[in-house]
Amino acid sequence: MAPTRTEERMSTLGSLDVLDDVAGASLDRLTDLAARTFRAPVAFVSLIEVDRQRLIARKGLAVAESHIRDSICAHTIGSTAGLVINDLRVDPRFSSLPLVAGPPHLRFYAGTPLIAANGVAIGALCVMDSVPRQFSTDDRRQLQTLGMAVMNELELRTLSGRRDPVSGLPNRHQFAIDYAARAVRTPGRPCFAMMIDVLDVPRAHEAGQVLGMVPLEALIRRAGVRINLALDGVAQVYHVAATRFAFVVELPDRDAIERLVHLLHEDLIRPMMAAAVPLAPQFHAGLCEATLGRDSADDVLRKMLIALGSALAGQVSCCWYSPSRDERLQRSYRLATDGQQALQQDQFHLVYQPRFRAEDLVPIAAEVLLRWNHPQLGAVSPAEFIPVFERTALMDGVTAWVLEHAFSQLAQWRREGLSLTLSINLSARDVARKGMADAFIATLLGKGLSCTDVEIEITEGEWLRADSLPGEQLQQLANAGVRVAIDDFGSGYSNFGYLTELPIHTIKLDKSMIDELPTDTRAQLKVQAVISLAHGLGYNTVGEGAETPEQVALLQAYGCDEIQGFALSRPISAVELALRLEAAADAQA
Q1: Angle of helix 28-37 relative to helix 137-156, nearest 10 degrees?
Q2: In 10 A of CB 538, how many CB atoms?
Q3: Which secondary-structure segment (H or E) carries 442?
Q4: What is the dihedral of CA 304, 307, 308, 312, to 10 degrees?
Q5: DSSP readout, 208-230?
Q6: Are 375 and 363 in contact (CB under 8 A)?
Q7: Is the dihedral of CA 571, 575, 581, 586 positive or negative?
Q8: Smallest Cα–Cα separation from 570: which of 394, 356, 352, 388?
Q9: pLDDT tens by residue, 84-110
Q10: 410 — phi, psi (to 5°)?
Q11: How many other CB atoms sit within 10 Å of the CB of residue 275?
Q12: Model pTM score
C-alpha cells in the first residue's frame, strides 16, 4: 500500500530533523525578516503533523502549537501558490478560529508552503495582521522566496557538510550554528552541556589496527544511535569529533544532569555487535554549565573538552569543567607559544648546582639548570615549562641553546684553569632524536672540549632499552667518552635490568629516597642497599636533594660517592661557581 500524504510528510519531517526547537531557533532570523518585509506584527514557521501544527519559529505570537483543525496552514500546504486571506473574519472557514474570534483577533493571513526536495509540503511560512490587508503579486513572490530560504536552511541540516558521515548525526559545525541561534532566542538562560567519548583515542587507534575501520565505525555509529535514542525528546545529539558526541540540555540543577549521566553510562557500556564483532563502548563524559548568550559555542565546546580531558586523565566516567585546570592549560599554552620568542630574546639563562665529593665535600661537578625570566609572568620554574616544551617541537631548539651556552661556559672555565665535570639533562625526546649523538659530540668538540669533560643525565623509564634508538645513541656517546647518569633513580620505575645493558656511569638517588633518612629505618636500609649494589656493579653514586646536615652525614657514612643539595649549595651563577671552585683549589693547594 502506498503511503498517505500525511505519512510522507511525517517521514520527511523526521529525515530533515526539524521536529524540535533546535531547528526552529536557526529560523528565527528569517521569521523576523518576513515580519519586517511585510510590516506584519505576526510571522511564523509552521510544521504540519498528524493532528497538530507546531510553530517552531515565531514572532509576535505566544501560541507554540495548535490542533490541526485550528490551523490555516493546513490549507496552505495543499496549494503550491500559497494562500492569502484578506479578511479572516468574513471567511466562513476561519472566522471562528481561536486566533480570529478571540485574542489577538487576527484578520489577515498570507502563507507559502514549505516544499521539500522530494516534493512533499511539510509546513508553511506565514505572516498575519490584526487588520484586513491586500497582498499583491509581488508580495506573494517575495513570500515564496523567503519560504524557499526557510526550506533551504532546514535542508542544509541534512547535507554531508553539516552531518557526520559515520553516524548521520549533526556535526560540530551544526552544533555551533544551532547553539548560536538558541542563544539569540533565549539569551541569559542557563543550561548544561555534555560531551561523551565512546572510545578514547589510544583504544580507537588500537581497535582500528586490529579490526580495521568497518567494525570501529559500526561501533561509533551504534553508540550514536544509543545516545540519540536515550535523549529522544530531551536534547539534540551532535557528533562533534571522531568518537565524541555532545548535547546541550536545560535541567534544574547539577543533580539532574548527573542522574542523566548515570543513565547514559548504564545504557552505553552494554556490549554491542559491530560488524559481527562483539565490542564494548567506553564512557567518559565532560560536563559544564553555560549561559546562552554569554558563553559562545566555542566556549562551551572548549569547556566540555577540558572536563572530558580530566575524566580521561583520571580514568573516571565523568568530570565537571574546572576553571583552575582551564587556567593551567591556558598558561601552558602561553608558555609553549612564548618559548620561541624567549629563545630569540635571551630570556633564558643557565645556573649551576654543584656536586660535592662526599669524603671531603669539595665541588667536583655541576649540574646545568635552565631558568626562564618571562617578561610578564616573571620567573617560571623548569618543572613547569620543560614538560610543556617536551610536547612541542620547541624542545629541540631549547636543548641546542642549552648545549651551546653550557659548552661555551665550560670552555671558558677550562681556559681559566678551572676543572670540573659538567652534567647536562637530556629528555627522552632528545635522546630519541636521530643524529642527536653526532650533533652533541660535534658541538662539544667544536668548543675545544673533550667528551670526558661532560656527563648527560637521563630520567629512567620504559623507553630506556639497549635495543632502541635511544639506547644506540647512549652507547655512541659513551663510546666517545661522555658519561651517562641515571637521574631520579628510585622515584618510581627503578629497574636494575637495564643498568647492565646500557653504558651507565652514575646513578643519582632521587630526593624522595633521601628525605626521610634521619628518621626512617626503612629509608636508611633502602639507600644503603642501592649504594652497595651500584658499587658492586661498578657505578658511581650521587645522593641528590640533601637539604640537612644529618642527610649529608648519613650519605657520607653509607659510602655515597657524591652529594648534591641545598644543604651544600643552591643553584648558583657561573660567576659564583667559578669563585667557589677557585676557593676550593686554593684550600687544597
Answers
A1: 170
A2: 10
A3: helix 436-446
A4: 170
A5: HHHH-HHHHHHHHHHHHHHHHHH
A6: no
A7: negative
A8: 352
A9: 999 999 999 999 999 999 999 999 999
A10: -65, -40
A11: 14
A12: 0.68
pLDDT digits (tens, 9 = 90+) for 3-12: 565 655 555 5
Contacts with 85 (C-beta within 8 Å, 6 or more apart), sequence order: 72, 91, 94, 108, 109, 110
b/e for 81-105, b at 16 or more Cβ within 10 A? ebbbbeebeeeeebeebebbeeebe
Distance CA 12, CA 54 (A): 15
Q: Quick count: other Cβ atoms within 10 Å of Cβ 154?
A: 25
- Three-point CA angle 50, 54, 57, nearest 5°: 150
Which three cell numbers, joined as nine digits, stand for 31?
Answer: 521569521
Residue 197, strand partner residues? 244, 284
Cα–Cα dist 27/21, whole Å: 10
Q: What are phi and psi of 126, to 5 degrees?
A: -130, 150
- Read out DSSP for 325-379? HHHHHHHHHHHHHHHHHHHHTT-EEEEEEEEEETTTTEEEEEEEEEEEEETTTEE
CA 292 to chain centre: 22
Distance CA 386, CA 383 (A): 6
Q: Is omega for the bond preceding 104 within 30 degrees of 0, making it cis? A: yes
* Rounded-to-integer distance, Cα 231 and Cα 192, Å: 14
Cβ(292)–Cβ(183) below 8 Å: yes
Q: Model confidence over 312-361: pLDDT tens digits? A: 999 999 999 999 999 999 999 999 999 999 998 989 999 999 999 999 99
Is 42 in contact with 59 (CB distance < 8 Å)?
Answer: yes
Residues 6+ apart with CB under 8 A from 313: none
| Residue 516: DSSP 8-state | T
